[in-house]
Amino acid sequence: MTNETILDALKNVTYPGFTKDIVTFGFVKDVQIQGDKAIISVDITSSAPEVKAQITDDISVELKKLGFLAVDVHITAPQAPKQLSNSVSGKNIAPQVKNFVMVSSGKGGVGKSTTSVNLAIAMAMQGKRVGILDADIYGPNIPRMMGLNGVKPEIQGNKVQPLKAYGVEMMSMGSLMEDGQSLIWRGSMIMKAIEQFLRDILWSELDVLVIDMPPGTGDAQLTLAQSVPVTAGIVVTTPQQVSLDDSKRSLDMFEKLHIPIAGVVENMSGFICPSCDTESDIFGMGTSKEVASSYNTELLAQIPIEPAIRVGGDTGQPITFHNPDSETAKRYQASASNLLAFIDKVNTEGGADNSAVQPTTPPGVSACSTGGVAASTAPAHTKSGGGCGCN
Ligand SMILES: Nc1ncnc2c1ncn2[C@@H]1O[C@H](COP(=O)(O)OP(=O)(O)O)[C@@H](O)[C@H]1O
Ligand SMILES: [Mg+2]
Predict the structure, then answer these.
(1) 255 and 196 in a common domain
(2) Buried b / exposed e across 275-306, counting CB within 10 Å, b at 16+?
(3) What's the pLDDT score for residue 10?
(4) Is the domain of 38 the same as that of 106?
(5) What is the pLDDT of residue 181?
(6) For ligand 1, which residues put their CB under 6 angstroms from it?
(7) What is the pLDDT of residue 182?
(8) Structural domain includes residue 264
(9) Which of 71, 117, 154, 363 is at 20 to 30 A from 286, Cα to Cα?
């Protein structure tokens, strides 16, 4: 009997909720044989007791098949975060979702979709029920990044079933259109689309829905904030000054929309050389910290430029899932834990509330996108339901 034989047998133990096994995930850290006893050490990312119990049982079954009389399984798991509670205040048109996370950036191409995908998968691997909504209507990249390009969703009446990959539910305009089609939409149509994504997609009971926004601060962001209480906002930026300038606008928008800010993800922060693993500075590193502090928030993660991240995105094999032992995957896992802790804190302190950003125009009266917030945050005597200049 060798350690290899044991590892081979452990390849039959799939990680609960996934199709991949614990050896391929790199979770098995040590194997020891003491006579007719096997001692296995496993490091998992989930704090859920069911995951721990199932892995322990499955390992015992597999190793007893090999003839071991006793099997000791030592599992190291992160501390269980408290139960994520529901956001109850204000308007919520997708009440089966407990928490909404808005991922924004000032510019395109800074890694918003990459961050959304990897954080969503990391939270799923930590035992949460997670969905990802690709609200970047003009540049829907999530299907490709999740390996779901070209997969068509099932339509049920006038509702749509989300697709699923890597333990995460997913919906995107890209899954509803033909490949390469473009959309030329007015603001009002964007607002309608965002609402339908929340109301007409058959999302399960989710702990967290991660929403990948179009770049900038516009109709999509406002509609989302008015439709559901957003528990946490994340800004993705690269370290260059020009990107930081734009990220301040996103942070300012979160403040105006009363969205609690979970932090800033500094993406493309340094470069990890694939052959020697040393990290070098390219666009600057740590420059986002000051911006984060000026908005009383923190640096949620510094993610290096790593070829495996780009390849993972292009091939639909996200690094967090496919290369869980890499430095980058560990950073995504750590920031997912911090994000979950932040969500927990917001809920403990009363939860997200979007009542202050509801449109103030009476039903039937045209309200433009900025009118609602401008009117609701303005002093009481100026509240007239107008103020947006569009009617
Ligand atoms: N840290 C990184 N290292 C290497 N490539 C990255 C990294 N982050 C993003 N990319 C790649 O950069 C491109 C843009 O990222 P994407 O997530 O699509 O940005 P956005 O959603 O902000 O437009 C993609 O090809 C992606 O794979
Ligand atoms: Mg994108």
Answers:
(1) yes
(2) eeeebeeebbbebbeebbeebebbbbbbbbbb
(3) 96
(4) no
(5) 67
(6) 105, 108-114, 141, 267-268, 303, 305-306, 309-310, 313
(7) 67
(8) yes
(9) 117
Task: Tally Cβ neighbours within 10 Å of residue 1.
Answer: 11
Query: What total of structural domains would you count in the chain?
Result: 2
pTM of the model: 0.78
369, part of any domain: no
- The per-residue pLDDT for 85 is 55
Q: Which atom of ligand 1 is nearest to the CA of 268?
A: 1
**Continuous segment of H or E residues that includes residue 348:** helix 327-348
| 54 and 159 within one domain | no
CATH (domain of 115): 3.40.50.300
Residue from 114, 133, 235 to probe ligand 1 pocket by mutation (most atoms less than 8 Å from CB): 114
Residues 180, 43 share a domain:
no
What tokens were used for 275?
């052959």
Instruction: State the DSSP code for 168.
Output: E
Nearest atom in ligand 1 to the alpha carbon of residue 314 is: 27
- Please name the amino acid found at residue 270: G
Can you give the pLDDT at residue 285? 78
Ligand 1 atom nearest the C-alpha of 306 is 3
Q: What is the pLDDT of residue 77?
A: 82
Q: Are residues 178 and 66 in the same domain?
A: no
Residues of the chain with pLDDT under 70: 79-89, 179-185, 361-391
The pocket of ion ligand 2, defined by CB under 5 A, consists of 112-113, 136, 141
What pLDDT sits at residue 286? Answer: 80
Q: Which of 310, 315, 335 to mutate to test the pocket of ligand 1 (most atoms within 8 A of CB)?
A: 310
By C-alpha distance, which of 322, 122, 295 is closest to 210? Answer: 122
Q: What is the span of the domain harbouring residue 35?
A: 3-76
